[in-house]
Amino acid sequence: MPFIHMPDASANEKVAKIYADAEAGYGYLPNMTKAFGHRPDVMERWSALLSTIKTHMDTRRYELVTLAAAKELKSSYCMLAHGSVLMRDGLPAETLRRVAENAETAPIDDTERAIMQFAAKVVRDAASIEKADVDTLKKHGLSDAEIFDIVAAATVRCFFSKMLDALGVEPDAAYSSMGADLKKVLVVGRPIEKLS
Questions:
Q1: Cβ neighbours, 10 Å, residue 105
Q2: Can you give the residue ranges of every domain in the chain?
Q3: Rounded to whole angstroms, how far apart are CA atoms 39 and 49?
Q4: Per residue, what are the HEC states of 62-79?
Q5: What is the reported pTM?
Q6: 1-55 has which fold?
Q7: In the chain, what is the straight-line distance between the N-terminal and C-terminal CA atoms, in Å?
Q8: How far is the CA of 29 from the CAs of 21, 84, 121, 158, 193, in angstroms?
Q9: Which residue in 172, 163, 171, 167 sits closest to 189, CA to CA?
Q10: Angstrom distance (rounded) from CA 18 to CA 22
Q11: Helix (H) or strand (E) holding 34
Q12: For residue range 107-128, what is the model confidence (pLDDT) as tens digits?
């Protein structure tokens, strides 16, 4: 149960639009969208920023960076949502479980591992990032622009995850259908909303 009242679609035209768009995309109205019902313009601008950041990264890289950031932030909602995207795009559930549990030993390539470690460090303590951290990514063949993209994806996650958690927004009940072993490693913070 969120800590604030979530407006319904009758609040105004902008709220009705973001709710309708979300329902069309997800097949239900996600709790995260309802949380932005008080300020739909913030949701619109967030979506535009996120879309711009994602344009420069392939989906798998973006989702792995986001997963690393969400784990560091203890955001169950983002772990579940972005884990679901990775599975939808072909990552087996067992591989996702291992990545979420410990990226250092998961069956991903060394570049992906370095990217996830870097993204986690950015979220954990950005001021502790040193040139050596960036140089490690460059040794894996990443350009300055690609490193910028990783930092952008990791830091933008801080806004969204912290916003949802500070408002008490629970991950959608739709995530309840995930396997128990997978949920165990993806639910790192707030529990999944109970089915009503």
A1: 10
A2: 1-55, 58-186
A3: 16
A4: HHHHHHHHHHHHCCHHHH
A5: 0.94
A6: 1.20.5
A7: 12
A8: 9, 17, 33, 23, 13
A9: 171
A10: 6
A11: helix 31-35
A12: 999 999 999 999 999 999 999 9
Cβ neighbours of residue 64 under 8 Å, at least 6 residues apart?
Answer: 86, 99, 108, 112, 115, 116, 119
Scanning the structure block, which residue is given the tokens 């690609």?
146
Query: Could you give the CA distance from residue 60 to residue 112 in angstroms, rounded to a whole number?
Result: 9
As a three-state string, the secondary structure of 97-125 is: HHHHHCCCCCCCCHHHHHHHHHHHHHHHH
CATH of domain 58-186: 1.20.1290.10
Answer whether 134's CB lies under 8 Å from 102's CB: no
* pLDDT band, very low/low/confident/very high, at 9 (cuts 50, 70, 90): confident
